[in-house]
Design goal:
The chain has 321 residues and is of the alpha+beta class. It has seven helices and 15 strands. Strands 7, 8, 9, 10, 11, 12, 13 and 14 form an eight-stranded antiparallel beta sheet that branches. Strands 2-1-3-5-4 form a five-stranded mixed beta sheet. A two-stranded antiparallel ribbon has the order 6-15.
């Protein structure tokens, strides 16, 4: 065989090898972290203040102040591709034309947001107009990433499915603490404390529809709080009274749901922490299905623990009759 024939046979194998090496590389960025590529002059001025006000504002419902996202700033002179391990990249710079652009790369994967303006005022205006959309896209992507990671090793769903007619992607590590007729408590121990999930249901008729829905939800969650006891006698979990919970209406699995964020505490004890509660109006089963997550992490960060719980809860799928 001459050299020409040998090279012709070798080329297809080289091409196949190269294609195999082009598989998407996993992104190792931390949860709720974003990379901002921006000139130092803009970052340490009004534009940087606007970015921090929008993307590092305090998270609602935690017992301590933590930013919505952890921000890592990089000078614009660095290539945009330098920050490839981040799932969310925001590029901000002055340019000859104004532009707001969103690009999604499936190969990494990540979202890149470009905010260009002719002046500082133009850039700030674009941040004001588009920050809500950017935040939603980033949060949705982070929740999807957590759910994908959770799906690799799930708790046996049989007990929850049989009792509540739902699919809920709860990762392994959670254990059943209490199992009642219409109530389940699961807990996971972590280095800094623990995280918990509550699942329960009440008849839809017993959920009084009034102007004060928050009061109804607080009474509902306090009514099951006696199941959650502390180390001391005569303790039970109640909704924290120092601050009013945050309330909003959302859609969850195609159904109206009430989202409540606030603080819990143990009556006659010193334990406390944040909670996130979803009361789903499930007319198909004539019930209010409640799924709540709460954590106990004294002197440690709570943001990402609560975000993990939110991702679990938002994986809920209610069985059709």
């Amino acid at each position: 065989m001459n050299k020409t024939h040998f090279l012709l046979l070798l080329i297809p194998f080289l091409l196949i090898s190269c294609l195999k090496n082009e598989k998407p590389q996993p992104v190792s960025g931390k949860t709720n972290s974003i990379s901002i590529i921006i000139d130092d002059q803009l970052w340490y001025g009004e534009v940087g203040d606007s970015i921090r006000n929008k993307f590092a504002s305090p998270v609602l419902g935690l017992t301590q102040e933590e930013p919505l996202f952890t921000i890592n700033q990089y000078p614009a002179r660095l290539l945009e591709g330098f920050v490839t391990d981040s799932r969310s990249i925001i590029v901000v710079k002055k340019a000859t034309t104004e532009k707001f652009e969103i690009t999604h790369s499936k190969s990494l994967p990540h979202n890149t947001f470009r905010i260009y303006g002719k002046s500082v005022d133009d850039i700030i205006c674009s941040i004001e107009l588009n920050s809500a959309q950017i935040i939603k896209i980033i949060r949705d992507a982070e929740i999807q990433k957590i759910q994908e990671d959770n799906s690799k090793s799930l708790l046996n769903p049989t007990v929850i499915k049989n009792k509540f007619h739902i699919d809920l992607q709860i990762p392994t590590g959670y254990e059943y603490m209490l199992h009642k007729k219409n109530f389940i408590w699961l807990k996971k121990d972590i280095i800094s404390g623990n995280t918990s999930l509550l699942i329960y249901q009440i008849p839809i008729r017993s959920f009084k529809k009034s102007s004060d829905l928050v009061d109804n939800i607080i009474k509902m969650r306090d009514s099951v709080g006696f199941y959650i006891k502390g180390r001391e006698p005569n303790t039970r979990m109640i909704t924290g009274e120092a601050y009013a919970p945050y309330f909003s209406t959302i859609m969850l699995d195609g159904k109206q749901a009430y989202e409540t964020k606030g603080n819990w505490e143990l009556k006659n004890d010193f334990m406390a922490g944040p909670f996130i509660n979803y009361a789903i109006v499930d007319k198909m089963y004539n019930r209010i299905l409640v799924i709540e997550g709460f954590c106990y992490s004294p002197s440690n960060q709570e943001r990402d623990l609560m975000f993990d719980l939110e991702a679990i809860i938002k994986s809920v799928k209610i069985d059709k009759r």
